[in-house]
Amino acid sequence: MTTSTAATTSGVSVRARGLTRTYAKGARSIDVLRDVDLDVGSGEQVAIVGPSGSGKSTFMHLLGLLDRPTSGELRLDDVEVGALAAWRRDQLRNRRIGFVFQSHNLLPEHDALGNVMIPVRLAGGTEEQARERAATLLEAVGLGGRFAHRPGELSGGEQQRVALARALVMGPGLVLADEPTGNLDPGTAASVFALLLELHRVLGSTLVVVTHSHEIAGRFPRRLVLRDGRFEEA
Q: In the CATH scheme, what architecture does the domain 3-13+40-70+82-233 have?
């Protein structure tokens, strides 16, 4: 892939101060995240590791504007996102944040091209714009011959490549990947992960990856351990 296959973007900076997420369980309150302070610079590559139940996915949901903190401040660039109206959060999420999850979350009734076109359509792009951008990203992830294939007609690795293309089709400044290779065999996982890093390099976006793999985490210049609801530098 070359820089001509995707639009270069500016990475989103992240600033969290006193970030807390509490859940009610019966009469009890459980602090999944507790007074988290964290800075991630524009264009940084960060891996997050930690035991199951430590709050990694909760943090990613807050960062991706899929959930709101119980207390504290979260800024993406200079925008305090906790204070935004729901429509503004939705708009910011679609235009500036890309998600890659362990499960592909592809729509089975759409083919590969249609799945990747969805974010462009949601942002108000024309059908021509959506098709052009989706085709460019599918070519970039090596699926140029699979445009018309539906998810059920693709292998697990191919489905994750479609999900990766969909996550990047808007040229997001922040890419969030939560166990993106967790359901893949080691060889396919290595291929998809290498592709994710290459696309990140081209786009210039900020990349935050949650992984159980210490081998994958070891390839990142910055590693964080989430333990007891708080981050530690590894």
A: 3-Layer(aba) Sandwich (3.40)
